[in-house]
Structure formats: C-alpha cells, structure tokens
Amino acid sequence: MTMGKMTALALGLVGGFALGVWTGPHIMQRADRAATAVDETVTVPHTPLATTPVPVEPPTVRRAPAARTARVEISAPALHDRLKPVLNKGANITVAAEGFRSAEEFATVAHAARNTEVPFLLLKHRVLNEGKSLAEAIHESKPAADAAAEAKQARSQARADLESIAG
User: Fold this and answer.
1) This prediction's pTM
2) Is residue 17 included in any domain, yes or no?
C-alpha cells in the first residue's frame, strides 16, 4: 500500500469518526422522542422592546366524528379477533389500536388499509398525527383511487364488524 493510499484511508476514518461525533447527539435526541408524538416547534424571536410574552396556541387537529354505532371498546377481545385477519400477519393489535378514539375509527382505518393496499401505519399516521380525513389520507397515498368511495366502503365494513360484535 502506498503512502498516499494510507493517508487517504486514515483521513477517511478520522472524517467518519468526526461525522459520527457531530451527528450522534442529534440522532439520539430524535430516537428518545415518542414515535407518535407530534413535534411542533415554534420559534419566537427575542425582541427587547416586548414586555409581555406572546402565548402560542397548539395547532388544532381535525378528527373524525364520534362513532354512531354500538359502543365497543378498542381493547375488546372480540374486536381483536375480528380485525386480526384485516391487518398484516404478525401485527400487534394492541399497538395498532393505540391513539384511536373509538373502535369504529380503528376498524375503518384497518379496513381502508386492506382495501386500498396502503400500509396501515401510513394511514394511521396521516389520520391521527396529521389530522387528515381518511379520504384525504387515501388520496395522498393513492391518487388514482376513488378516495371518497374507499373511505365510505371501509366505514361501512367497520360498522358491520362492530354491529356483529355488539349484537
């Protein structure tokens, strides 16, 4: 190995180490945050003339209306048994149901994911974290699909599931 190659190798290793030291804290800080938390940071510039702090209101999130069908708990074993085939193999239903306000909302997103072949976690993120309607989330994921019809079909499938469990 020539002296030039050895120098280049040594500089590459030192550069890689320096890059790791520089980016490591940023990566670890991001990994420590909860995966479902929405990270909204608002920076207010410091003005020496202002005497009172300006209150910052959190952004509002649009949610789907509450379920109008029979009340079924998201943690109900019957619901888990009913939706297990709808989700992917090996999916942890308890983790998948986290964040949803109602069993109908959870079942609707699960059915929409299965019907449109859009990953469940992507639809869940867009509905819960980004505050989009299910139709908007489907349209964003699959622009060619009839998002309104897919959302309506998923909602009717979810309601049928809940009615069969409750009654």
Assistant:
1) 0.56
2) no
- Taking all residues of the chain, what is their mean pLDDT, rounded to a whole number? 76
The answer to whether residue 59 is domain-embedded is no
Asked whether residue 3 is domain-assigned, the answer is: no
Instruction: Tell me which residue range forms the domain holding 110.
Output: 77-166
Number of domains in the chain: 1
In sequence order, what DSSP letters do the residues of the chain get, joined into one string?
--HHHHHHHHHHHHHHHHHHHHHHHHHHHHHHS-TT-----------TT--SPPP-PPPP---PPPP-S----TT-HHHHHHHTTTSPTT--HHHHHTT-SSHHHHHHHHHHHHHHT--HHHHHIIIIIS---HHHHHHHH-TTS-HHHHHHHHHHHHHHHHHHHH-
- Please tell me the predicted confidence (pLDDT) of residue 69: 40
